Request: fold
Amino acid sequence: MSGNLQEDSLRQSESRVKELEDEKNRLQKTYTAQNTQLDKYKKLADDRQSLADSLDTQLTALNKVRLTSLYTVDNFTLVKLFGILDIQSKLVLYSITSIGLGADPGFLAVSTPVT
Reply:
């Protein structure tokens, strides 16, 4: 009987070893698959971060262009306003001088502002 118990115990142990080896192999496959997925998502995250950085750089550049454009528009507007003020001042001078002095209206020629 003792030989029979030892054989049963040995078979149970061998069966348990087989189950544990199968479980180990299954877990290794799962680990490998998850590691592959993790690497894939890390690469995807790096790509997205690079894209975000690139878009941020482009946005900064566009904001600089926009601010420069606004400054240019404002500068152009100022030049136009000064041109109008110049014409008005010439008209006032002409009115003052033509009251009795017979001034030459040739000085009313408008100079083109350089932009």
Q: What stands out?
A: The mean pLDDT is 79. The radius of gyration is 45 Å. Residues 2-98 form the longest helix (97 residues). Residues 2-108 form one domain.
